[in-house]
Design brief:
It is a single chain. This protein is mainly β and 215 residues long. The chain has one domain: Porin. Helix content is 9%, strand content 65%. The chain has 1 helix and 13 strands. The two termini are 43 Å apart.
Length: 215
């Protein structure tokens, strides 16, 4: 019995030593993908145009790209992490026919010239993963600061707005340090372009992929 307790004490000591010496996991990577925006919705006038409602504005599909970095906690919390990322895309406003409404009535306004739209998104997510040696699924609710710049022949306007950055993906490890990943992101924000005299709700569906290095 004495030998049993000695062995148990040594085993417990080795376990505690191993547990407390587990290192946190950091990673960095790059990403590129396809951005499919929904129409700009709830388009309403501001300032001197207040009270005017425009029809939804159609946006172009776009290429997105960016970088990310993250941290997974050590030990029993290795399934939870934090991730910072920055990505950008140009879902330009198409040339299109629009209608304008006021007080419940609407009428054709004419053809709206297309405008350049650039969106840069720094975001932070809480990542929940199912740790795996080769395949690792994960989800990540988060928030972003969406920076939008709209420009055309008459000038430009910029707004910054908080919004949602929600993602889900799968990571495929090539070895213990290098992994490929693919993920879906949903973005949502509401912009107010005070110089352009309108506000609108932006949302998009994004499919990204990339490579991460873990250390």
């Amino acid at each position: 019995m004495k030998n049993f307790f000695s062995i148990l004490t040594i085993a417990l000591g080795l376990f505690l030593f191993t547990y407390t010496s587990v290192q946190a996991e950091w990673y960095v990577g790059g990403q590129v993908g396809f951005v499919k925006p929904n129409d700009l919705k709830n388009v309403e006038g501001l300032g001197s145009a207040k009270g005017i409602e425009l029809s939804d504005l159609d946006l172009k599909n776009a290429l997105g790209y960016g970088v990310k970095g993250g941290y997974f906690f050590p030990g029993y919390m290795d399934w939870v992490g934090l991730q910072l990322e920055v990505f950008t895309a140009n879902p330009h406003i198409k040339q299109q026919n629009v209608t304008a409404g006021f007080g419940g009535s609407s009428s054709p306004l004419g053809t709206l010239d297309g405008s350049h739209l650039r969106i840069i998104t720094p975001a932070v997510n809480v990542i929940f993963r199912l740790p795996g040696y080769y395949v690792e699924p994960y989800i990540g609710p988060g928030i972003g600061l969406f920076v939008a710049k709209i420009s055309d022949s008459t000038g430009s306007d910029t707004d910054m707005a908080p919004g949602a950055n929600i993602l889900a993906g799968v990571r495929f490890y090539l070895n213990e340090n290098v992994a490929l990943f693919t993920e879906y992101k949903y973005n949502y924000a509401k912009f107010k372009f005070t110089d352009s005299l309108f506000e609108a709700t932006y949302s998009s569906h994004n499919m990204f992929g990339g490579l991460t290095y873990h250390f």
